[in-house]
Design goal:
about 575 residues; alpha+beta; Uridine Diphospho-n-acetylenolpyruvylglucosamine Reductase, domain 3; 3 domains; globular; 20 strands; five-stranded antiparallel sheet; about 20% strand; Ubiquitin-like (UB roll)
Length: about 575
């Protein structure tokens, strides 16, 4: 069977269009679960992009996607092509390692890597090149907008950009050296204006009258609606379709488990779900309507942008956000997808539980019209949409199970505003305000799944715990609140003794399993240790970060409930 030929039992799939090498590429009948990596290597013969782990962990398959930024330029995202479905590239610009050199002249990124001897076996090198290309172009774009020279790349900048790339040969130092000097090589830029024009051509083709509503009126293999009503209508008509956002988890199901749904519903192009905005508090919230607005994060917002918004109001989350995953995963995955997926080791849910977040669920139809109401583009009345909001701790019902009905879609994550920052009382020196910490324990510092995750939010009044909210992951079938530990903290002075007692409660509250990532005893012990660490950091006893700390440091400062626990 030819690579782009669908088996007879699969529905036809809409033409895939993207911009590469200055031209619009049009590919017909690309199966809905074909990965972008398979398309590049097997269908287009672009073998510079390598297959390594097939799970988004190693970065050998990294490519760069570009979208118009609304200011005449482009936004660049390095992504893992092994777990991206090919149709995710629709309407975007695409670069692979084959696209960078101009004739016999290497790209500045490539030249810098050569000069610093940053490649040995070379298998991972294309992925490093593409991650650095995204950083390179982003810096040049920023320079073009400001009229100032490009900001030099620091060591930390390079480490951030390469957080999703692994190398077994070089020890990374020469790669990092190359990253810091690539802007010193004579520049080579993308013709962004021409690329934006090509992307506009693709958009106009998508919106041609003959193509309008095609995804919602017939059973195509890959559905990618561009408006919320179209998304919900498609969901009502095809509830069996595999819903995807960033596809960083579903992509692994495809590559590792041979999961091959005949129909995929992609929400990432839905305009209403691509934004972060301030909204009124949910109806179920105890917060008064006239208080500060909540943050609404659309389900198509990437993890990168979602965490940027959370860190902007809660700077204490910066380290946790950077450790969520490697950058290519954060660039593709979405916060809404992470929450809806419901994995017990999904790192965002413990944090959102601690913050008191809500979710918005929507579906097509209404109590009076039902889900069979047709989608008519010219209808003068508003589409019949149902919406409900509920706290995140009421969302999960079991392992990867939620309260969502077959026709419902999680459309927004709603996050309360932060309280006043914690400060000492001027007279009593007791603490007042909100204290927030989120901790992740994993085998690798970054680009890894957590063994256990804990997020703690306290509101202190004159040193007494007035509110306590603790979210935990990796210890139960679902992300959960530590209700017993919360109760042990409420009304108590925030002291070393209280933290130690609460840690003892937390140690006994859950019965996690042992698996390849950690033993049950280790998970319980780490939960208790992290609670004590939160106390130490809140009071200034330990000026340390999680990544540099040791359990010995805390155990020397306070009695520990960990005595006798085994890791």
């Amino acid at each position: 069977m030819a690579p782009n030929t669908l088996p007879p039992h699969l529905p036809e799939t809409r033409v895939l269009q993207f911009v590469r090498s200055g031209q619009v590429q049009r590919l017909g009948n690309v199966p809905p679960t074909r990965t972008l990596l398979a398309l590049l290597r097997d269908d287009l013969g672009l073998t510079g992009t390598k297959e390594g782990c097939r799970s988004g962990d190693c970065g050998a398959c990294t490519v760069v996607l570009g979208e118009a930024d609304g200011q005449g330029g482009l936004r660049y995202r390095a992504v893992n092509s092994c777990i991206q479905l090919a149709h995710a590239a629709h309407g975007k610009a695409l670069w692979t390692v084959e696209d960078l050199a101009e004739g016999n002249q290497p790209h500045p990124v490539q030249q810098a890597l050569v000069q610093h001897h940053a490649s040995q076996c070379g298998f991972c090198t294309p992925g490093f090149v593409m991650s650095l290309f995204a950083l390179y172009q982003t810096r040049l774009g920023q320079s073009a907008h400001t009229g100032e020279p490009a900001t030099p790349v620091t060591r930390d900048d390079a480490l951030h950009a390469l957080s999703g790339n692994l190398c077994r040969c070089t020890g990374y130092r020469p790669i990092l050296d190359a990253a810091q000097t690539m802007l010193d090589v004579p520049t080579q830029t993308v013709d962004e204006a021409a690329t934006v024009l090509k992307l506009e051509q693709v958009r106009q083709i998508d919106e041609a009258p003959e193509d309008n509503f095609v995804d919602e009126t017939r059973a195509t293999g890959y559905l990618h609606p561009s408006t919320l009503p179209h998304l919900l209508h498609a969901r009502a008509r095809f509830p069996q379709a595999q819903l995807v956002a960033g596809c960083t988890d579903v992509g692994i199901w495809v590559t590792k488990l041979q999961h091959a749904p005949t129909q995929v519903l992609d929400l990432t192009r839905v305009e209403e779900l691509r934004h972060i905005e301030n909204v009124a508090p949910p109806h179920q919230s105890p917060v008064a309507p006239d208080t500060a607005a909540w943050l609404s994060i659309g389900a198509a917002v990437t993890l990168t942008h979602a965490f940027d918004a959370l860190v902007a109001t809660r700077p204490a989350l910066a380290t946790f956000a950077s450790r969520f995953a490697g950058l290519p995963v954060r660039n593709a995955g979405t916060l809404g997808g992470n929450v809806a997926n419901g994995s017990p080791i999904g790192d965002s849910m413990p944090l959102l539980l601690a913050l008191g977040a809500h979710v918005r669920l929507m579906q097509w139809g209404s109590a009076s019209t039902g889900a069979d109401t047709p989608l008519v583009s010219s209808a003068p009345q508003a589409p019949p949409l149902q919406s409900r909001e509920l706290p995140l701790d009421q969302f999960y019902t079991g392992y990867r199970q939620t309260v969502m009905q077959p026709a419902e879609v999680l459309t927004h994550i709603l996050v309360p505003p932060p309280g006043p920052a914690i400060t000492p009382h001027p007279d009593t020196h007791t603490l007042n305000g909100e204290w927030l910490r989120a901790y992740k324990i994993s085998k690798r510092f970054e680009d890894d799944i957590s063994a256990v995750c804990l997020a703690l939010r306290l509101v202190l009044h004159n040193g007494v715990v007035a509110e306590a909210s603790i979210g935990v992951g990796g210890v139960a079938a679902t992300p959960v609140r530590a209700l017993q530990t919360q109760a042990a903290l409420l009304g108590q002075p925030w002291t070393q003794a209280t933290a130690t007692q609460a840690a003892t409660v937390l140690l006994a509250e859950f019965a996690p399993i042992s698996d390849m990532r950690a033993s049950a005893a280790y998970r319980r012990a780490m939960l208790a240790a992290l609670l004590q660490r939160a106390w130490a950091e809140s009071t200034g006893v330990a000026h340390i970060n999680l990544e540099h700390a040791s359990l010995t440091d805390l155990s020397q400062r306070s009695p520990s409930p960990l005595n006798g626990a085994t890791a």
